[in-house]
């Protein structure tokens, strides 16, 4: 049976605590809402969910699970505080490590990064992408809002060809939900 | 049983030298052997969740950016221990510039690697002479388990290939 495993890497940096368009009360809350909606679907289809929070460092907070209640309570906790800096490279590494020794029940491995495109410290992104690629992890990078100084938006399209990354900038809640649904359905 | 390569990805190691050495190693390797690959500088970073073939390993390193900070081999060993879990890692090759004395003595790295079941540990470096701090750094280590290859070239690559069991 095809089992799909998804690890969300959620940016909890200070800038994610701000609103953008209809991504309210903050981009972070909009992202949490979208994860909750999609995780219900993943679990119903026998998939697994993991969660890594990141700002200047990355913290795995949910190992791969099917427990919807646990996912809900972890995410409610995740939205409470934001921190300085943003290290998406560290987040990708920690998210990929959650797949370690899970070959048996993760036939498909996905990491979905939800961030506003800040990238100012930590493991170089292209180094982290090597780990994801060599570990057969499909990476989807969703940038919430338009910061103007979107470093990820400059970097990722250049690396896209080599690493098979999905990259999408979303400017509204509807776009965010549509993108995550597309990934979860396997259309992306 | 897989081996492991702990690769110094700091700016202090010449990439050109390391490619010459690794290509020579691959040339001398006529048996399929998997390698865990950990890049290190101040931090360590695994570059795959499982062992890679030498050709995949060389290709990965060719795309690897330089990592910031001075190399700390202990961090790489720690990362390897986490990655290998309960699996044994029979041989470990450390490619390292030895540009600066690390904070922790090599004994920490050595014992950790031995606890993974390693029967052979080799340090290869482009340096011509051992640094001054090397004697105190390598203190308390059983020398027969550890080889230090200075200015490692073709011959050394051949020897390492034999010792890590990828040359019949």
Keywords, please?
heterodimer, A: 188 residues, alpha/beta, 40% helix, B: 168 residues, six-stranded mixed β-sheet, 6 helices, 6 strands
Biggest interface, residues from each chain: A-B, 16 and 20 residues
Mean pLDDT of chain A: 90
Structural category of chain A: alpha/beta
Helix count of chain B equals 6
- Element string of chain B (H = helix, E = strand): EHEEHHEHEHEH
The N- and C-terminal alpha carbons of chain A lie at a distance of: 20 Å
Strand order of the largest sheet of chain A: 3-2-1-4-5-6
User: Residue share in helices of chain A?
Assistant: 25-40%
Instruction: Give the structural class of chain B.
Output: alpha/beta
Instruction: Work out the number of β strands of chain B.
Output: 6
Radius of gyration of chain B: 14 Å
User: pLDDT below 50 for ≥5 consecutive residues: which ranges of chain B?
Assistant: none
| Mean pLDDT figure of chain B | 91
Q: Tell me what portion of residues of chain A adopts beta-strand conformation.
A: 15-25%
Rounded to an integer in angstroms, the radius of gyration calculated over CA atoms of chain A is 15 Å
- Give the overall shape of chain A: globular
Order of helices and strands of chain A: EHEEHHEHEHEH
Secondary-structure blueprint:
The complex is a heterodimer of chains A (188) and B (168).
Chain A: E1 4-11, H1 27-44, E2 48-54, E3 58-65, H2 68-78, H3 88-97, E4 108-115, H4 125-134, E5 137-144, H5 151-163, E6 165-170, H6 173-185
Parallel strand pairs in A: 1-2, 1-4, 4-5, 5-6
Antiparallel strand pairs in A: 2-3
Chain B: E1 3-8, H1 15-27, E2 35-40, E3 44-46, H2 54-63, H3 73-84, E4 91-95, H4 106-115, E5 120-124, H5 134-137, E6 146-149, H6 154-163
Parallel strand pairs in B: 1-2, 1-4, 4-5, 5-6
Antiparallel strand pairs in B: 2-3
Helix pairs in contact in B: 1-2, 1-6, 3-4
